[in-house]
Amino acid sequence: xxxxxxxxxxxxxxxxxxxDIKMSCGKKCAQIAHAAVGACEKADRTLKKQWLAExxxxxxxxxxxxxELYELKVIAEQAGIAASLISDAGLTxxxxxxxTALGLGPAKTEDxxxxxxxxxxx
Length: 122
Hints:
Blueprint: E1 11-18, H1 25-42, H2 45-54, E2 58-63, H3 66-78, E3 83-87, E4 99-108, H4 109-116, E5 120-121
Parallel strand pairs: 1-2
Antiparallel strand pairs: 1-4, 2-5, 3-4
């Protein structure tokens, strides 16, 4: 059987979670899911269609402060990339209004790499 090359993804989402807040694994997953849906809803329809057809690549990254999320959001929006900043309702583990996550894209992989390339994987 011949091995095929890894697919080249032209589109992706970057989902970024604050790592300085004590959250259970499930809570982090929920916040990341909110960020993914929120950013996708704001994305250009044609771009979203291409990303969906390609397999919906997502990368989950971490930062150490709310400030970093705000800075990344501004940079992404200035580049024309859909962004969704998530504030928690405060019903379970953390205080209401706590900024927890940021969803960026879908957008071109190289554009997101310029913005998020220095961040560590969760």
